Amino acid sequence: MFARLRRFAGVDFHVLATLMSRGWSILAGGLTVLLVPFFLPPIEQGYYYTIASLTGLQILFELGLGQVVLQSVSHEMAHLRIDENGQLQGDAARRDRLASLVKLLRRWYRFAAALFAVLAGGAGALFLEHKGALPAGEWLGAWCILCLSTAVNLTYTPALAFMEGCGRIGQVARLRLIQSVVGHLGMWTALMLGAGLWAACLVPVAITVLTGHWLRTTDTLGRTLLDQQIDPANALNWRRDLLPFQWRIALSALSGYFIFYLMTPMVFAQRGAAEAGRFGLAMAVFNALATVGTSWVYARTPAMATHIARHEREALDRLFRGVLSRSLVFTVAGAAAILVVVPSLRALGVTQVERIAPLPVLALLALACTANCVVFSAAAYMRAHRTEPMLPVSVCSAALITVAAWQGSKLGLLEMSAAYTGITLLVTLPWTLLLFRRYARPAQ
Fold first, then answer.
1. Which of 66, 141, 244, 331 has its C-alpha lying 20 to 30 A from 366's C-alpha?
2. Cα–Cα distance measured from residue 56 to residue 154, given in angstroms and rounded to the nearest whole number
3. Which InterPro entries does the UniProt record give (predicted)?
């Protein structure tokens, strides 16, 4: 019976591990939502969520290469296999292409990590100093550690994306689950011991330590490819093979920062740390829901790319319909549950619930989260073709939401959330669906 239920739900090891990892993120996010108002005063809560949004600036330095790696490796691996010794077998030219990709990425990500630590760290510190209400001594040390650990984690991104492209989605998801459990347990303990904003460092530090150890003991294939001698005729050419896809992904990723991360710092700047904390808490809840809701789609992305590389259109569409329906059902159910639980806690007199945005704001964010589930899923399907049709959608949505965040944050959380949700429902979603039809119904 359990096996039949797993087949009905479309859950294999990779989906299960991804669901467990992202499901834990909802549980951890929920407990954090409860603990932060208990152990941080309103001003520090605002700093906590603003700092979390500012670390999202790493998107500006990654330039979309993680997504490019996943798709490129998946397409190459459709014609290769990994033997019992963890070595690649198959066409030598494709092995050389993967080896050249690994070497190129290692150089770029080390450079990008150094840039992030210096530029984003400095810009974030200036922003918090200029707009904040706390003395630098209460947040600067935590911000520096957070930036350094995030920079180190950025150097690990290509290795993890490479392993996911090789079909090891479940193994990477299991690592992320362990990281999150260790990091959040440490953070909650630090909060209860009165560590204040220093507690925010524990999750990225745990990720740094555990990822480094895991890659040293597990990523034998990556190390082999780094040492491999490459025939220059087979080497991957960045301008020819990556740049046409990457620059579009990079601009879409940059736009994603303005769409999902900018609003909380805008509220911090315009309405103060306390209001930023309320809105940041609400966004954290729905971002966690979106992350878990799209687990089915994300876990099957390498499989979609493999079907495309092998021209298996019917299998591709059947797979996508299944994962989309499961992702959407989960997201709708989760959003409805949030809208029931929050007012129920208020009715029971749980005063900490007042530290989250009011119910009308939550309802608007729930609508946006549901629409984004469809947008994320359709984008994953299209990007599995190694193209990025979402660029104009992302740039336009980012521009509109930036204006909405700047103007709306002056008026209030409800007005800003209404503008954000309206743009998502009336611009981003229909435009994405129009693009998706071209891929779901290719010309004969």
1. 66
2. 11
3. Poly_Biosynth_Transport
Q: Using an 8 Å Cβ cutoff, are 180 and 292 in contact?
A: no
Q: Is the pLDDT of residue 151 over 50?
A: yes
223 exposure class (CB count in 10 Å sphere: 0-12, 13-18, 19+): middle
243-254 pLDDT, tens digit per residue, is 666 677 777 777
CA 151 to chain centre: 16
Among 22-36, 73-87, 92-106, 429-443, which is the least confidently predicted range?
73-87
DSSP H or E segment with residue 1: none
| CB-count burial class (<10 Å; 0-12, 13-18, 19+) for 379 | buried
For residue 320, what are the β-bridge partners?
Answer: none
Q: How many CB atoms lie within 10 A of CB 94?
A: 17
Does the pLDDT at position 6 exceed 60? Answer: no
Q: Could you give the CA distance from residue 1 to residue 229 in angstroms, rounded to a whole number?
A: 51
Alpha helices in 81-139 (DSSP H): 92-115, 121-131
Q: Which of 420, 391, 422, 394 is nearest to 407 (CA)?
A: 420
Return d(Cα 250, Cα 255) in angstroms, integer.
8
DSSP letters, 383-429, are HTTT--TTHHHHHHHHHHHHHHHHHHHHH-HHHHHHHHHHHIIIIIH
- Computed over every residue of the chain, the mean pLDDT equals 82
Alpha helices in 272-390 (DSSP H): 273-293, 295-299, 301-309, 313-347, 359-383
Report the alpha-carbon distance of residue 47 to residue 147 in Å, rounded: 15
What pTM, to 2 d.p., does this model score?
0.65
Task: Report the percentage of the chain scoring pLDDT > 70.
Answer: 89
In the predicted model, is pLDDT for residue 362 greater than 80? yes
pLDDT value at 313 more than 80: yes
